[in-house]
Design goal:
The protein is built from two helices and 19 strands. It is mostly beta strands. A hairpin with a 2-residue loop joins β5 and β6.
C-alpha cells in the first residue's frame, strides 16, 4: 500500500517536527552516502520459497500497471515492493530488517493486526502504513517499512542502525489484506523502483541499474497459498492462517484443495489436482482464463462427502499454471492429512 509521508504521526499526539521532515526531504543530517544505497532484502526470507514479491512499483506512467519487467505483478499507482508471507500462520512472522544503514527518523507501533476485509475492521484513515519505520540513508535517500506487527517495532527515532538490523516483524497493520511488508524507496521524495534503479515515472523499458545487492527471482504468477480444507475456505481466513495445518476430519462435509493466486493473465490455464492416500486420482479441475486475467484469484477443487467417511491418510495436492508460449510458469504441491 502507498505510504504518504504526512500520514505517519512523528511525535507526541501525532505532531510532525520540522527536524524530521527536513530529514525526509534529504535536507538534514544523516548517514552520508554519495551514491544510491546498495540494498539488502528487507525481510529475512528466501524469495520464491518462504516469501514472495506479490506487488511491485508501478512503472507504467499511464493508467495501466506494469512491473519492472513490464509484466503484471504490479497494481496501478503502487509505489513500493510488497514482500508477502502468504499467511500469518504460527512461525511465519518474517523479520523485517534495515535494507541499508541509516538513521531512524520515524517509527510507529500500537496498531492492531487485522485485515481491512475483516467485518468490523477499524478505520485506518491517515494511518494506512500501519506500524512502520522510516530510515534516512543520506543524500536524500529514504526507505519506508509498512504493515509491521503490533508490538514488534525494535527501534526508535534518532537511533542509527546498521544494514540488516532487525526493525520488527511482518504483520497485518494498516491498509492491508494479507501479511506483507510494503517496502518503499525514495530519493528526494521521488519514488524509485529498486529493481530498475530509476524513478517509477521512467517506465519499465529502461536499462536496469538495480539497487539490490543480489539478484532476486522473478515470479510472473505467484502461488501465494495452497492447502487443504474440510469446509468452504475463503481468502481472508486462509491468509489469517485458519487452514494452515492442512488437516481435515474424516467426517468433514467436503474435502477441497484451495489456491490463492496472484497475477493470473488472460489465456493462462490453471490445473488443480488431488491424489488420495493410495496414489489414485481423487479430483482434477482445469480452469482456463479465456476472458480475462486477475490481479488476485482464489479457487477450489474437491468433492462433497457421501455417507462414508473420507479414507484416512495423506493426500497430495498439486497446482500448475500454464501460459501460452511459455509452458508451465508456476507450480506447487502440498500434502494434507485426513484423520
Amino acid at each position: 500500500m502507498e505510504f504518504v509521508m504526512p500520514d505517519l504521526p512523528w511525535g507526541p499526539a501525532g505532531r510532525r517536527g520540522p527536524f524530521v521532515m527536513a530529514l525526509l526531504l534529504g535536507l538534514g543530517p544523516g548517514v552520508a552516502l554519495a551514491a544510491p544505497p546498495s540494498l539488502h532484502l528487507p525481510v529475512d526470507c528466501v524469495v520464491g520459497e518462504t516469501c514472495h514479491i506479490v506487488n511491485s512499483v508501478d512503472d507504467d506512467p499511464g493508467p495501466g500497471a506494469r512491473d519492472h519487467r513490464c509484466g503484471p505483478v504490479a497494481t496501478n499507482g503502487h509505489k513500493g515492493t510488497d514482500i508477502g508471507l502468504g499467511s500469518v500462520a504460527p512461525g511465519r512472522l518474517g523479520v523485517v530488517v534495515a535494507a541499508a544503514a541509516g538513521l531512524v527518523v520515524a517509527a510507529r507501533d500500537g496498531m492492531d493486526d487485522i485485515s481491512v476485509l475483516t467485518p468490523g475492521a477499524p478505520s485506518v484513515k491517515d494511518r494506512e502504513c500501519g506500524n512502520a519505520v522510516v530510515l534516512d540513508h543520506g543524500d536524500g535517500w529514504t526507505s519506508i517499512y509498512c504493515h509491521m506487527a503490533k508490538g514488534s517495532i525494535q527501534v526508535q527515532a534518532g537511533q542509527s542502525v546498521p544494514e540488516g538490523a532487525a526493525l520488527g516483524l511482518i504483520g497485518l497493520s494498516g491498509e492491508t489484506e494479507h501479511p506483507h511488508l510494503h517496502f518503499e524507496v525514495r530519493h528526494h521524495q521521488e519514488v524509485i523502483d529498486p529493481f530498475t534503479g530509476h524513478p517509477a515515472a521512467a517506465g519499465c523499458a529502461v536499462a536496469p541499474a538495480p539497487l539490490w545487492q543480489a539478484p532476486l527471482p522473478y515470479e510472473p504468477t505467484i502461488a501465494y497459498n495452497l492447502g487443504f480444507a474440510g469446509e468452504q475456505p475463503e481468502r481472508v481466513g486462509v491468509r489469517a492462517g485458519r487452514f494452515a495445518d492442512n488437516t481435515v476430519s474424516a467426517t468433514a462435509p467436503i474435502l477441497v484443495l484451495y489456491v490463492d493466486l496472484i497475477a493470473v493473465q488472460k489465456n493462462d490455464r490453471v490445473t488443480l489436482a488431488i491424489t488420495d492416500p493410495a496414489g489414485q486420482p481423487f479430483v482434477t479441475s482445469v480452469v482456463p482464463f479465456d476472458q480475462q486475467g486477475w490481479a488476485q484469484w482464489f479457487g477450489l477443487a474437491g468433492q462433497k462427502r457421501g455417507p462414508a467417511p473420507w479414507p484416512s491418510g495423506v493426500y497430495t495436492g498439486t497446482l500448475t499454471v500454464e501460459r501460452p508460449g511459455q509452458g508451465i510458469i508456476a507450480s506447487r504441491s502440498v500434502q494434507g492429512t485426513v484423520r
